[in-house]
Specification:
Order of helices and strands of chain B: HHHHEHHHHEHHHHH
Number of domains of chain A: 2
Number of strands of chain B: 2
Helix content of chain B: over 70%
Order of helices and strands of chain A: EEEHEEHEHHHEHEHEEHHH
Largest sheet of chain B: 2 strands, antiparallel
Largest sheet of chain A: 6 strands, mixed
Strand content of chain B: under 5%
Oligomer: heterodimer
Shape of chain B: globular
Strand order of the largest sheet of chain A: 6-7-8-3-9-10
Radius of gyration of chain B: 20 Å
Structural class of chain B: mainly alpha
Structural class of chain A: alpha/beta
Number of helices of chain B: 13
Shape of chain A: globular
Number of strands of chain A: 10
Number of helices of chain A: 10
CATH class of the largest domain in chain A: Alpha Beta
CATH superfamily of the largest domain in chain A: P-loop containing nucleotide triphosphate hydrolases
Distance between the termini of chain A: 34 Å
CATH topology of the largest domain in chain A: Rossmann fold
CATH architecture of the largest domain in chain A: 3-Layer(aba) Sandwich
Strand order of the largest sheet of chain B: 1-2
Chain lengths: 245, 273
């Protein structure tokens, strides 16, 4: 059974079609990449799934249950967590507090403070942030802030994690670390959808890629299928990608 | 009294950053509770009911308006004060045929001790909230509401409940203060100035720390009394000037100023390279 299923997802901003009649399904344990030019509707699609924006039409099922129409916090508590393209950490709270909030209010709220604290520390450790757990989030480097966002999302104990451009603005070493992190998150049994412009990352970690353009799904397939697809090359990747592959 | 109102204002507006101009409304509800029930019920009951009435009003208003953000919220809360003021005025003139009411008085020491009790309970509530996960959620809302929502926080509920708790204390303070004034009418009970004062006092004292608003309110209240008796004609002018200077030179309030002074004196000792 797919973890996430979307049927006929549509969203307009005024007269602009942001996402138009997109169907998608994500199976358990998959890493799915979501790519496309700027303004293709990738982040909007995330906003629809996570409940930040209401759907114009269509339905979203999570583990067979309808989640479209629920509020963001309800969707989070069902087990869908996300990160943001423009970083949204809590700047004046420490890294630990950022993560703690996720443990307190995520899928299993009402756990004891001790337990939440232990879990938050584990997650910081896992994300390689334990050294800066007392640092205010605003004082962390960009790469660490992005990892903190993922840590906070993980603390809510999701089954599906939506990662919005984790690699943008990172240097090659940081990208390599991020790729490793994504794979190890998946090993913990969490399904991932990621938006990314760093093709190397997408091609390396994703099993399946969905390409959006002008709000429509124009292609879907394995990384190999995508790099060799005529439409995708024409609209997004460009001729050089073909030469490189 | 100012301390209670300012601190309860800070309870909600401090961490969330939602500037509420509704204190006068909640205070006024308390005042009127006292005026209506003053002869029938003992003082503690009136204070409790005044607080509860404000609590309920805040729950209702909060549920309606806490979706609004920024300036819209500020405008609405201020509108609420005016709305209640004119509604009560209209009611008194057209339905009950009075404009003012007489409130049974209580002696001053008693008022003082009751205010102290309210203050202690308020500080206790504030302290409990700050240390709890609820307080953490509140802070998260202030720093990034979207992210808080996507981390599983029911932002609307957290905001509305805190708003209502803070209104409870304002209402209780209103119910108590009414007994000192003996005569009230809608313009006294719903005095818009009471909405601005807590904001100014909290800013003056510094919102970052628990004791900031307390210091701010205490000094401010004293300053007001002092200026009003010494310079009755220029008092508003002097008041305004002090406020402008405070905002320009002490953006973090008195507490910020004190901290900076402490810091510079310690830094002087361990001079950095």
């Amino acid at each position: 059974m797919p973890v996430l299923e979307g049927k006929g997802l549509t969203k307009y901003f005024g007269g602009l079609v942001a996402v138009s009649n997109v169907d998608l399904h994500v199976d358990e344990g998959e890493i799915v990449g979501l790519i496309g030019p700027n303004g293709a509707g990738k982040t909007t699609l995330f906003n629809l799934i996570s409940g930040a924006l209401p759907l114009r039409s269509g339905t979203i099922l999570f583990k067979g249950q309808k989640i479209s129409g629920l509020k963001p916090y309800e969707i989070c508590r069902r087990g869908v967590a996300r990160t943001f393209q423009s970083i949204k950490v809590f700047p004046d709270m420490s890294a630990l507090q950022n993560v703690l909030l996720g443990s307190y209010f995520g899928v299993s709220p009402g756990m004891s403070s001790m337990e939440a604290l232990r879990e938050a520390k584990e997650i910081l450790e896992f994300m390689g942030l334990s050294a800066s757990s007392a640092t205010r989030a605003r004082d962390l480097t960009l790469a660490s802030q992005k990892r903190l966002e993922v840590a906070r999302a993980l603390a809510t104990k999701p089954q599906l994690l939506l990662i919005d451009e984790m690699m943008a603005g990172l240097n090659p070493t940081e990208v390599a670390q991020a790729i490793e992190l994504v794979s190890s998150i998946r090993k913990n049994g969490i399904t991932i959808i990621m938006i990314e412009h760093v093709m190397k990352a997408i091609m390396n970690v994703c099993e399946r890629i969905i390409v959006l353009h002008h709000g429509q799904k124009i292609a879907e397939g394995t990384p190999q299928e995508i790099v060799s697809s005529e439409t995708v090359i024409k609209l997004y990747l460009g001729e050089r990608a073909r030469a490189a592959s | 009294m100012y301390i209670v109102i300012t601190v309860s204002w800070t309870m909600f507006s401090g961490p969330t950053g939602y500037i509420s101009l509704a204190p006068a409304a909640f205070f006024g509800v308390g005042v009127y509770t006292s005026a209506l029930l003053g002869l029938v019920l003992p003082l503690p009951a009136i204070i409790g009911i005044g607080g509860l009435a404000s609590f309920c009003l805040a729950l209702f208003v909060g549920a309606l308006t806490l979706r609004l953000r920024g300036t819209y919220f500020v405008m609405f809360t201020f509108g609420l004060v005016e709305l209640l003021l004119h509604f009560v005025l209209w009611w008194e003139v057209n339905i009950t045929g009075t404009t003012g009411r007489v409130v049974p008085t209580v002696n001053n020491t008693k008022v003082f001790y009751f205010m102290l009790i309210i203050f202690v309970i308020l500080m206790f509530a504030l302290y409990t909230i700050r240390g709890s996960r609820f307080g953490l959620a509140l802070e998260a809302i202030g720093q990034n509401e979207d992210a808080a929502a996507h981390t599983g926080v029911n932002v609307t509920m957290v905001k509305v409940i805190t708003f209502a708790i803070s209104a409870f204390f304002m209402g209780a303070a209103g119910a108590l203060m009414a007994t000192r004034w003996t005569y009230i009418d809608p313009k006294i009970a719903f005095n818009p100035l009471l909405s601005f004062m807590p904001v100014l006092m909290a800013i003056f004292g510094g919102m970052g720390q628990l004791y900031g608003p307390i210091i701010g309110a205490a000094i401010f209240a004293y300053l007001e009394e002092f200026l009003i008796t010494r310079f009755p004609y220029y008092y508003m002018l002097i008041f305004g000037t002090i406020m402008v200077i405070a905002i320009v030179y002490m953006p973090e309030g008195l507490v910020g100023l004190i901290r900076r002074l402490l810091k510079s004196s310690t830094e002087g000792r361990h001079a950095r390279t």
